[in-house]
């Protein structure tokens, strides 16, 4: 199976958030792609089956730890990757709710610590990863840096309100990706920087809110991962700085 037909081979991919629900599915999809020669998987904690994965994949898979609240950890990870020349970087991380802090239904529920956590993980961390990882990408061939965003980060599409911190963090991420795309184009003309909306995926992140999901709109992680890789494969440099849903549709700012 191959989902990444637009990249030069052999493909080296970096996946941040490989132990999460969507991240793990992306890891499996990348490893199943015959054109992907190497995957560097970074996550806060190692997958439960890390030893079995490593034994199965050998040198094709590298598992490393990373702390998205510590820029020095991101810089150290980039240093380890400096000789790998990846063509694809996927940031599959995100925070929606924590113990005792569901998404806010009203401004009365705003909490400074929760807001800062959302901004740290959902907006600042991907931007810092771009800072440290984009310089590793090839300048004269196709490359993609993509991070998971969300439709609720669209200001124009917000007709319901609520979810203050999560919406704000994803809107901030979308702006950071846009700024990054504009700056990076000067030195990486074939680079695509994009946000990706996976839809509502059956993971612990969405579990408390699945009862309100319309029939047929709750996706498996495997479906979301394959859909997102197909979207990534079809993006052109002219589309850099935009956000796209799992079905390839552009999401308005």
UniProtKB/TrEMBL annotation:
Which stretches are transmembrane? none
Instruction: Provide the leader sequence positions.
Output: none
Instruction: List, alphabetically, the PANTHER family matched.
Output: NAD(P)-BINDING ROSSMANN-FOLD SUPERFAMILY PROTEIN, SHORT-CHAIN DEHYDROGENASE/REDUCTASE
- Listed name of the protein: SDR family NAD(P)-dependent oxidoreductase
């Amino acid at each position: 199976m191959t989902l990444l037909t637009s990249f030069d081979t052999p493909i080296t991919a970096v996946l941040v958030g490989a132990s999460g629900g969507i991240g793990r599915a992306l890891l499996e999809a990348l490893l199943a792609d015959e054109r992907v020669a190497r995957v560097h998987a970074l996550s806060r904690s190692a997958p439960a089956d890390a030893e079995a994965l490593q034994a199965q994949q050998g040198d094709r898979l590298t598992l490393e730890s990373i702390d998205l609240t510590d820029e020095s950890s991101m810089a150290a990870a980039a240093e380890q990757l400096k000789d790998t020349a990846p063509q694809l970087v996927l940031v599959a991380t995100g925070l929606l709710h924590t113990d005792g802090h569901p998404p806010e239904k009203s401004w009365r529920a705003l909490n400074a610590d929760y807001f800062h956590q959302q901004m740290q993980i959902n907006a600042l961390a991907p931007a810092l990863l771009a800072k440290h990882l984009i310089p590793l990408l090839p300048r004269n061939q196709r490359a993609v840096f993509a991070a998971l965003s969300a439709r609720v980060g669209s200001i124009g599409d917000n007709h319901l309100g609520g979810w203050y911190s999560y919406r704000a963090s994803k809107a901030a991420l979308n702006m950071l990706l846009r700024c990054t795309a504009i700056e990076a184009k000067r030195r990486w003309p074939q680079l695509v920087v994009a946000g990706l909306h996976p839809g509502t995926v059956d993971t612990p992140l969405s579990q408390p809110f699945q009862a309100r999901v319309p029939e047929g709109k709750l996706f498996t992680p495997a479906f979301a991962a394959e859909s997102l890789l197909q979207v990534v494969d079809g993006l052109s440099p002219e589309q850099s700085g935009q956000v796209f849903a799992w079905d390839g549709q552009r999401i308005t700012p």
